[in-house]
Protein 1
Amino acid sequence: MAYGGRVRSTLRLLALCTLVCGLWAACSRNSGPATSAYLRQCGAIAAGADDQVRALPALAMPARPVQPKDATDEQQRVYEGLVRIYPLYVNQYHAAVMQRLQAIADQYGQALDRISSLDAAGVDPDGIQLVTDHVHLITEERDFYGEVRSLADHNQTSLVRRNGVDEADDRLVAAFGAAIGDVAAAPGAVASALRDAAGDLSRRKDEPFAVGEQAAKLADRAGQLQRDRAGYQAESARLVAVLQARFPGQDWGAYAPRPAAPGK
């Protein structure tokens, strides 16, 4: 009897396992279209945010006046006048950059809100993981632009108090221009510009506005964003391959592997 009981128990366990496996397989088959549709929606929202950022009009960077060689008296007067108002142009550029950076961060914030409002019912767990990873990356991108804005804010305060423009300001103007340029290249370009500015910023170490500290913080964030973008590209390619194998015939183009973002 004991043996027969064990046999019946084993058979019930096998039947239960078979039922669970069958249900899982059925759910897997049915979740293909839902997963594909969900990823297409998420991918379209993210791509739309990138497109909106790229569509923002360019901002002209202020150029430091250059004294003409063998200048005439008139040319010298014009040059000296430009030198006097150059800090005003740089200050105005900081204000425009901060407004632009806020607009970029808002675009990514809105994309995150839209993705979070989507219905993920019936979506395969690997599809959920793929979007979760993407959401994490978009969050990092939004926060990166917030950090650039913070640096611009710190430096504008310093600029106003100094009532003049130094070499570090010129380097930081280049960093801000890189941040609001090519979306894909922004982290690497900003990190490169901040490396160029490090020496000039070190000469401001005694000022109370912590511009150097904010620049170092931003450089670290830019480097981390570059690494996380590369990691996301590799992991998303793996997850898409899994989904393609599991659900053949579905459209996974929204998350097809793309070339890694360039960096310096």
Protein 2
Amino acid sequence: MTRTLIAGFGNVLRGDDGFGVEVLRRLGARGVACDSVELLDVGTGGIRLAQELMSPYDRLIIIDASTRGGEPGTVYTLAIEGVRPTKEIDMHTTVPSRALEVAQALGPLPPEIFLVGCEPASVDELTTELSPRVAAAVDRAADAVETLL
């Protein structure tokens, strides 16, 4: 049985930054969680991911707002090929790359790591609402995660 951890990152009070958490909620509503698939709301505390990865998983899927230069609402699925070593452990790390560095310092990472990201429109506005284009991408991102499973 392949054990998979799906981790949603983001601050639900900063508009599109809450994308990862919203996709995680959608996956929960779809009934994706089971004996071999666990959902983890990381929020803005990346150390939670590092702690959870101390248990062995075969696959990690991270969901997050990801600025890559595309149009807002664009969904990206990327395989993470390597994580650089960290020189310090920041207990308040909030971005997936730093959380993975900390997790790697604590123990081995899963052999398969993916990022399902969405280009945000705005992450600086104080609101609990996703922008319309990013909200429309939630189901596409959930579909992408289910395809990886």
Protein 3
Amino acid sequence: MGDDEAQVKGVDDIRYDERGLVPAIVQEQATGQVLMLAYMNRESLSRTLETGRTWFYSRSRQELWPKGETSGHIQKVKSILYDCDADAVLVQVEQVGVACHTGELSCFYRKLMPEGEE
């Protein structure tokens, strides 16, 4: 088995980018719907594993934040998978409330169309 095929055993084995971040795709486990994309660092990923709720790293505020802290729209973690390169994670959750700050269930609610089409 080559290095790329080795099992990741902990948060330090994830391949974080030069800023120490890994993209985290959040998916509703029951339906498969993609809810959001956020970023995690080692600490937020560790807190997510420890608490069973999602924690992310805010690139704009440069701080950790627990999803739903102010809105109450929490994400209960069901499983965390990582991709073949260990440079992205898929967090499968039970979403309580909505995932998007706009009030939409998913952050992916707008459709990109070719220019000139409506």
